[in-house]
Amino acid sequence: MIAILGAGSLGRLWAATLPAGQVAFVPRPGQATEPVHFRFCPIRGVTRPVTVPWLQSRQTPSLLLVTTKAGDTLTALNANLPLIPTNTPVVLFQNGLGSQQHATEAWPDHPILAATTTEGANRPEADLTVHAGEGETWIGAMNASGEAHLAEVVRWLVQSGLNVHTESDILSRLWQKLVINAGINAFTAILNCQNGQLLEHTFFQQWIDPLCQEISQLLNSAGQPEQTPDTLRARIENVARKTAANTSSMLADVLAGRDTEIDFINGYLVRLGQQHGVDTQVNQMLTERVQHLK
Ligand SMILES: NC(=O)c1ccc[n+]([C@@H]2O[C@H](COP(=O)([O-])OP(=O)(O)OC[C@H]3O[C@@H](n4cnc5c(N)ncnc54)[C@H](OP(=O)(O)O)[C@@H]3O)[C@@H](O)[C@H]2O)c1
Q: Which end of the chain is more exposed for a tag (fewer CB within 10 A), N or C?
């Protein structure tokens, strides 16, 4: 049984694509036990109904997928990991950085893995989950016991038909995504624009170089491969052009009045700068501006 903690867009994508009968959502304490019914609209093929039961207290999952938002993850794990055997691998799907390291420190006895995915899923209606963009999912170990379960975890998840790969250095891959998110998401939320439009905004043009200087220094401080500010800017702008028509998840969260993951993207970079004595005024400014959008 694969348990999914976080019955939102990404959790439902995995629930709908993994073999029926092998998945269950993890309930909040005291949550109703009626199965979850929703419609799933795949990229190819027709919309179909999906039913997912809630994990029962007598069931022991062989794998736990954590698909909560970064800010909810520690609370969700605190409520559930004490009930899960210490040899059950736990895969963290959160965007950004910070929550993965916290979970790994807090639960050293559990095999912890992290994933980064470019799959896109959303819920235009409460009972409709749309697989909006096909992507790749990379999974790697956050601790030694996670490493021992990596191949097995990937074998389970490949059954979904999604593109799932093992990653020997998941932290670097999470960093690569963080760099792009740090250079796009906050700007799109502040400017209320799609990814491609931000390139034309003077606010973006004014701050992207000093932001990339900060990120370049932080990559060095974190022991990540060196990247010059110019390389970082080129990568960020390239992704913004390739995803020109996309609404970033941060802008979508702001527009829907939900909490954003800014504390795990630019906010993470601010905390890292404080630890390493790196000036992060631009990351700080972007973090505060997004925090005030709600
Ligand atoms: N969606 C995507 O395409 C996508 C792609 C790449 C990465 N990600 C990352 O994946 C993570 C999840 O994204 P998402 O879009 O799926 O978010 P989401 O739709 O908001 O789903 C999160 C789910 O977690 C549930 N949850 C929160 N706290 C919980 C708790 N203590 N116990 C049980 N469930 C709890 C929420 O329930 P309530 O709604 O009831 O609060 C919600 O259903 C984020 O870090 C995101 O950046 C998502």
A: C
